[in-house]
Design goal:
6 strands; two-stranded antiparallel sheet; Pnp Oxidase, Chain A; alpha+beta; 94 residues
Length: 94
């Protein structure tokens, strides 16, 4: 969800049983890939699998891209948009 303009800030809620939670907890930067309608089936299939033991780029034949500043933060070329983010805070709720 959107949180503010200065600086531009978003909030994310991820359940702590998901592998994405573990990754985001450790990350300093990350991306949010926005798939178009043409990727709806692939998005569903990918969401049903964990990335913990699977290279989803390889399995689903999608192309990783780096953020423009060249940081090791990958987006997905086939998506209509990628939002590259730097983690500001991480808050674990109870």
């Amino acid at each position: 969800m959107y949180c503010g303009y200065k600086p531009l800030t978003f909030c994310f809620a991820i359940h702590d049983i998901n592998y994405s939670y573990e990754l985001l907890e450790r990350a300093t930067s990350f991306s949010i890939a926005i798939p178009g309608e043409n990727l709806s089936s692939l998005t569903l299939q990918s969401g049903l699998e964990t990335g913990k033991n699977t290279d989803k780029f390889d399995k689903f034949h999608i192309t990783p891209i780096l953020s423009e500043d060249g940081e090791y933060c990958m987006g997905i070329q086939e998506c209509i948009a990628n939002i590259f983010c730097k983690k500001n805070k991480f808050h674990k709720s109870k």
